[in-house]
Amino acid sequence: MFTDVFSTFIFPKETDTSYVLLSPDLPLSLQAFTLCMKVASVLPTNREIILFAYRTKDYDELNMWQEFNGTFSLYLSGPGVSFTLPALNTFGNHMCVTWESQSGLIAFWVNGKRSLRQVLRPGHRIQPEGTVILGQDPDSFLGSFEKAQSFVGEISNLYMWDHVLSPSVIERVYLDYSFPKGNIFDWQSLSYKCTGDVMVELWM
Ligand SMILES: [Ca+2]
């Protein structure tokens, strides 16, 4: 008896039509989160690259980008912060973002190592009833995509928790070894729907 093990989303080319819709296991009403994924891309760094987009009807609630200048940024419905980090590459970086509302402290983690911390929107709560997509930046609810902001490359090992994981747990997420199930998104039981030209790699 074999079970399909779902391995990677492959976005083979620049489009304004291809994306993956993710269904969270919990509503994204959040005062903290840890978001992790492995990302490989060889897109030029003088181009915006959307890495994760969570949008409600009127707002981009939680968006992660690589920016024109190669920095990485995270926006929470308006305000954002950017971080200078190792560039995306063909072999893939394991990236996490942690944020919690009380202090507003936010950090990126690359291959298990934490960036310096910045402060973003203390007291803020991320609102539920939106849609999470990979591959495109929606300027309206599930629409108005721009090809020049699309993601091209591979995304795997996507997990999200409604709290900040400890450094030792993030290290284990990076090593893909013995860590708690993602209570918002868990790569081992991810509920998703692909639209357009997105390939899903499955191992038997
Ligand atoms: Ca856009």
Automatic annotation (TrEMBL):
Protein name: Pentraxin family member
Cofactor section: Ca(2+)
GO molecular function term, any single one: metal ion binding
Leader peptide range in chain numbering: none
Main location: secreted
The keyword Metal-binding is assigned to this record: yes
Sequence intervals crossing the membrane: none
Subcellular location: Secreted
Record's cofactor remark: Binds 2 calcium ions per subunit.
Pfam families, per database record: Pentaxin
Entries under PROSITE patterns matching the protein: PTX_1 (PS00289), PTX_2 (PS51828)
UniProt cross-references to InterPro entries, sorted A to Z: ConA-like_dom_sf (IPR013320), Pentaxin_CS (IPR030476), Pentraxin_domain (IPR051005), PTX_dom (IPR001759)
Keyword field contains Thylakoid: no
Record keywords, A-Z: Calcium, Disulfide bond, Metal-binding, Signal
Similarity field: Belongs to the pentraxin family.
Pentraxin (PTX) domain ranges (all copies): 5-204
Record GO cellular component, one term: extracellular region
Assembly and oligomerization: Homopentamer. Pentaxin (or pentraxin) have a discoid arrangement of 5 non-covalently bound subunits.
